[in-house]
Give the backbone structure.
Amino acid sequence: MSSPQYDRIDRAILAHLQRHGRTPNVDLAEAVRLSPSSALRRTKALEADGVIAGYRAELDRDRVGLGLTVFVALRVEQHSRETSRSIEEALCAIPAVVACHVVSGEADFLVEIAVPDLASYEQVLLDEILAVGPVRDARSTFAIRTVRSRGPLPLDHWPPRRGG
């Protein structure tokens, strides 16, 4: 089975949708210089292939009362695939966790937390994060100000140069 072929038009569709996710198909087609039916077909194909993973509203954290962002570097005692999976599941089940990464270096996981205030973070840290089995160390870094968050992904390298 061959991998899907993507081209510069697919890249243009993705770039546009990253910045304007609610664009009506007619406007998207005009922006990427396609007919509406072609734009819709390509968008549906990108969705079916999993390139477009979903659509969602991006909320202003301050306006919804989540003014404190904390990055927590976690070290764990045991390193195995099973342990990693159980830690990932436990961390992702914590509502305040908005991102979780397995990393290399001094830490094993880097977790992004969004909470209303320091007292809320203390509760999340002590009652939820440190309660995750083999976590042996947690180092917190507090965001003073977010300059850019969830910016559009760079697509200059994509698609691999096979088609158009």
Observations:
- The longest strand covers residues 68-76.
- The chain has two domains: 8-48, 68-142.
- The mean pLDDT is 92.
